[in-house]
Amino acid sequence: MTSSAKGPTHPFRSEAAGARNRSDANTAPHLASKVPHNRLTAGHHQRAHHKAHLIDNIKQAIAELVLATGDDVRTKNSAYLSRRLSHDYTYLANLFSGETGSTIEQYIIEFKIDRVKELLLSSELTLTQISYQLRYSSVAHLSNQFKKVTGLTPSAFRGLHRQHGIMAESVNVVTVFCNSVNIPEVRRVRFAM
Questions:
Q1: Which among 72, 101, 130 is the end of a domain?
Q2: For residues 109 and 66, what is the distance between their CA atoms, to the nearest angstrom?
């Protein structure tokens, strides 16, 4: 093939060569289209940061609710969180479960059970006193919930720790029991609050 004076015989090369020779004025709309994209990305990051901050605030409010003392804090969890965080509870619940994979109710139960463990190991409080302090409806409710989460009754949990001489070192040390071949196994797990 021979090439003519008009240009190369391969149209793809011609188009590619033409694309390299475009002026900056022709590419300016392309660059301008990136500005809204960057704004969208910044908006997305801002919303993600807001959600993460709100999740942290929910967890903090739950900690304050669970650790609070006195009769004045006997209120429904949903009403407390809604009032404390100035958001509708349904919005908070959907956001929390969507971001953490756990419901607010599950998180409250786990937080309360961790607190029960701490009190069982670091104090001489009775189950009745612990039940009242953490606003359980009854000792039976506390015991059932504790057994459902840990696999042991509160009394068995306390007894096993006393038997092995293991006491809580600090607030952020929790003992986990694993049923491996029906033998309770004691492990120490550290977590940050």
A1: 101
A2: 10
Q: Are 69 and 46 in contact (CB under 8 A)?
A: no
Kindly state the tokens that stand for 115: 């607190």
The model carries a pTM of: 0.62
Domain contains 85: yes
pLDDT of residue 178: 44
Same structural domain, 84 and 113 = no
**pLDDT > 90? residue 82:** yes
CB atoms under 10 Å from CB of 104, counted, come to 22
Q: Which residue has the tokens 């029960």?
A: 116
Residue with tokens 């040390």: 173
Tell me: do 76 and 143 sit in the same domain.
no
CA distance 122 to 29: 67
